[in-house]
């Protein structure tokens, strides 16, 4: 199974930290945030990883390199400066991701989820990892019943930014910039999306305050 790290975003909410540093290279407890994903994906047996590039993509590519540091092969999917969002970014990278299901991880999260779990999932369309709703969010994204994702229900959970997708999930998708969320909700409505709940350590480092909380915890 191949994996993709979504790392092309501008990081507007993290400014001014991201004015001169790409979001995935922001340091957390002594190393760039993206290094934690690369370490864990490698430990889980992933050997081919695609990283999307956008804002300040050059420094990110130069720092991470070809992946040999983690015993993986890294390919890059270059996006426009304003990025293609989650759906457009994955859709553009499909030729690099092969014909089998692949894992996707948001580049601005930190977690101790075991990525080797993703490699055993049977995915016909999409499989999402959900987490309990964090304090800084008002409501969740999806409900989960008997291993199946639902758009409505109680309790609701937050989409962690970790998932598995089959290429057919993106069949007939448009090019350009678009979010994967509407397509997910449509596919969920057709009862084609599976999921699981992760109760372990998970952080969204998308603001300076949340990044500092993560840094403090790991230090």
Describe this structure in words.
By secondary structure, the protein is of the alpha/beta class. The longest helix has 13 residues, at 85-97. The radius of gyration is 16 Å and the shape is globular. Helix 2 (57-64) links the parallel strand 4 and strand 5. It is built from 5 helices and 13 strands. Strands 1, 4, 5, 6, 8, 9, 10, 11 and 12 form a 9-stranded mixed sheet that branches. It has helices at residues 33-43, 57-64, 85-97, 181-189, 208-218, and strands spanning 3-6, 27-28, 31-32, 48-53, 73-78, 102-106, 109-111, 126-131, 142-145, 148-150, 156-165, 193-197, 202-204. The mean pLDDT is 93. Helix content is 24%, strand content 27%.
Average the pLDDT over all residues and give the rounded result.
93
In N-to-C order, the SSE pattern is: EEEHEHEHEEEEEEHEEH
Radius of gyration: 16 Å
Low-confidence stretches: none
Tell me about the largest β-sheet: 9 strands, mixed
Oligomer: single chain
- Pairing-aware structural class of the strands and helices? alpha/beta
* Helix content percent band: 10-25%
Total E-strand runs = 13
The outline comes out as globular
Tell me the strand percentage band.
Answer: 25-35%
Distance between the termini: 32 Å
**DSSP helical segment count:** 5
